[in-house]
Amino acid sequence: MDYLQPYYTVIALILIALVVLVGAAMILRSFNGRVRGRRGSRLGISEYYEMDQTRRLVLIRRDDVEHLMLVGGAQDVVIESNIRASVGVQPQIPPPPEAPQLRTAPRPAVFGTTRPPLRPVAPNFQDPNS
Asked: Which long-range contacts (CB under 8 A, 24 or more apart) does 41-46 make?
C-alpha cells in the first residue's frame, strides 16, 4: 500500500468534499417548508389570491377540511372555517355548444325550358401596365 501514499491527501479531500455536500443537501432539505407526517402530507395550501402587496386570501387544507383565511397586514383573520373539501371533483365545465346546423345550398334557378341569355365574353389580352 505504499504506492497509494502520495494520493492520501487527494482521497481525504474528496471524502471531505462529499461529507460537506451531503451535509449541505440535508440542511437545504430541512428548509423546504413542507410538513410531513408518517403517512404523508395532511396540511397544505389549496389556493391563494393576492389582494394587494401585503394581504392574501389563503385556502388552507387539513385532511378533508379547508379554512379560508386573510393573512398579512395588521392581523390574520379566519373568514370561513370547516369547509368540506371536495377531493377529486373538478368544477363542472359546460359542454361545448352544438355546431350550428349547416344550411343546404340553394337550389339552382329554374327557368323552365328556356335558359337565361348569356352573352359571350371576349378575352382581354391588353398589357395592364400600359
From this structure: 46/85
Mean pLDDT confidence for 55-78: 89
Strand 77-84 relative to strand 65-71, pairing: antiparallel
**Cα–Cα distance, 8 to 1 (Å, whole number):** 11
User: According to DSSP H, which parts of the chain are helical?
Assistant: 8-30
For the whole model, what pTM was predicted? Answer: 0.39
Q: What is the 3-state secondary structure (H, E, C) of 91-119?
A: CCCCCCCCCCCCCCCCCCCCCCCCCCCCC
C-alpha cell at 48: 391563494
- Nearest by Cα to 79 from 87, 92, 69, 65: 69
